[in-house]
Amino acid sequence: SQTIHQWPATLVQPVGSPLSLECTVEGTSNPNLYWYRQAAGRGLQLLFYSIGIDQISSEVPQNLSASRPQDRQFILSSKKLLLSDSGFYLCAWKENRNTEAFFGQGTRLTVV
Amino acid sequence: DQQVKQNSPSLSVQEGRISILNCDYTNSMFDYFLWYKKYPAEGPTFLISISSIKDKNEDGRFTVFLNKSAKHLSLHIVPSQPGDSAVYFCAASQNRDDKIIFGKGTRLHILP
Hints:
The structure holds two protein chains of two kinds.
Chain A: E1 3-7, E2 10-13, E3 19-26, E4 32-38, E5 44-52, E6 55-58, E7 65-70, E8 73-78, E9 87-94, E10 102-103, E11 107-111
Parallel strand pairs in A: 2-11
Antiparallel strand pairs in A: 1-3, 3-8, 4-5, 4-9, 5-6, 7-8, 9-10, 9-11
Chain B: E1 4-5, E2 10-14, E3 19-25, E4 32-38, E5 45-51, E6 56-59, E7 62-67, E8 72-77, E9 86-93, E10 100-102, E11 106-111
């Protein structure tokens, strides 16, 4: 069966520090991968999605970047965090078109 | 531009009655629609989906209705149970790029 791992679960980082959140999927190959952010009291905002290695689309201009160094690994990064980067970050994967996506447990990021 | 809209931030329903959550979308290219349930500090879990070629899909207590001409879908939960209290997200995708766009969610409270 397929599983998705996302870590860390919580993170407190100072303003201006770098960020690296990792997501890996097991039990499938060539999945679509997604990064979402849920800010306090808001919906799920799509940040990045990837249909293959080194194929990444950015949805909103921001202080973040994403990379997919391996088929089932998706990394969210920042060189210098801002206070506004605080939120709940979720990784998700799906197989084919017109199927559901499965989410990880999320990372609560607090920038102080 | 918000492509998927959930205009009710919250909804309270008596236990045992029907819960109806609504969702509107603006992009006529969307061809697949999903509902997710989310508890605090967890990733969303998939509930039910519907393809644009259908107008109804049922799974146990959950039924999703799609009205393409009105660009509207709804999730019916009957009978409502205490464990249904959560935030419900409507989402949509299109075959062209397979990115999944979420609404802002509706918080459902099931009253005893």
